[in-house]
Write a structure and sequence with these properties.
This protein has 5 helices and 15 strands. It is of the alpha+beta class. The protein folds into 2 domains: 4-89, Beta Barrel (OB fold (Dihydrolipoamide Acetyltransferase, E2P)); 110-253, no CATH class. Strands 7-5-4-1-6-8 form a 6-stranded mixed β-sheet, with no helix packed on it. The longest helix has 15 residues, at 212-226.
């Protein structure tokens, strides 16, 4: 390991875990540093961290970073964290007073249309950013494979065979895709949502209702019906899927809209 530097990061993105041969599983984690620059922390085996290292969204952490990302991930925001150095700082930012603490930070960050953000990638390989849609049209529910692909199933069996602790990781049998418009859209955009909270809600609702289909509808009711209501100032934290330039919704920011004062 080369030289490292300690950095404070406000966590804004945690996606549903994916299996990993090297780390058992990985969670896409991203946020902003104190100067307001985006950073992607990779790899993080979040559920295999100790309790005092399992941070929440909208929580500041301090972490040592290596000079570049892991493996061949050349995206400019990607940095490899020293996992044992992760320290939580205080409590997650509150949603009180109409999300004031969160908005004081998020509102100051650059916001883009989907087209503008994609253009930034072409210009300088920007791969993280905030998109503010003018209208969210739908959250499409699409069937997906019910089981992990064979290589991941074999990985789980190998870990069990060699006595490695293995936390249950269920494959979600659907994918969820936001359909939305921006102010410069010629046609609606579609982007898959991989928010950790979406996956957790699906699992909880499936257990409660005893039905995956009903759980999927509960997810849509929450992530479309509530998070994208007309009285919400909805934004998407978006990022590219490596190694492809495919934009995903990694998280949703949904404070109440601020009322416009009218002068008579």
């Amino acid at each position: 390991m080369g030289s490292t530097e300690k950095t404070k990061v406000l966590i804004l993105v945690k996606t549903y875990p994916l299996p990993s041969r090297a780390y058992q599983e990985l969670v896409c984690t991203a946020g902003i540093m104190e100067a307001g620059e985006w950073i992607r922390l990779y790899p993080i085996d979040y559920r295999y961290r100790s309790a005092d290292q399992q941070f929440d969204k909208y929580q500041w952490i301090e972490v040592e970073l290596e000079s570049r990302g892991a493996g061949n991930d050349s995206r400019k925001e990607s940095r490899r964290p020293v996992l044992e150095s992760i320290e939580k700082i205080g409590q997650p930012l509150s949603t009180k007073r109409k999300w004031e603490a969160r908005r004081q930070i998020i509102d100051k960050l650059p916001h883009y249309t989907k087209n503008q953000l994609a253009a930034r990638y072409d210009e300088d390989r920007t791969s993280l950013g905030i998109v503010r849609p003018v209208k969210v049209l739908d959250l499409e529910i699409r069937p997906a494979d019910k089981d992990w692909k064979p290589e991941w199933q074999n990985l789980f069996k190998q870990m069990t065979l060699f006595g490695e602790p293995q936390k249950q990781l269920r494959k979600i049998p659907f994918s969820f895709h936001y359909v939305f418009e921006c102010e410069d859209s010629d046609s609606p955009h579609t982007a898959m949502c991989e928010d950790w909270e979406l996956g957790t809600l699906f699992l909880n609702e499936s257990a409660r209702l005893g039905s995956d289909n009903a759980a999927a509808e509960s997810v849509k009711k929450k992530f479309f019906g509530e998070l994208c209501r007309n009285d919400k100032d909805t934004r998407f934290f978006m990022g590219t899927y490596f190694p492809y330039n495919t934009w995903l919704v990694l998280g949703v920011f949904w404070p109440p809209k601020e009322k416009q004062q009218t002068l008579f």
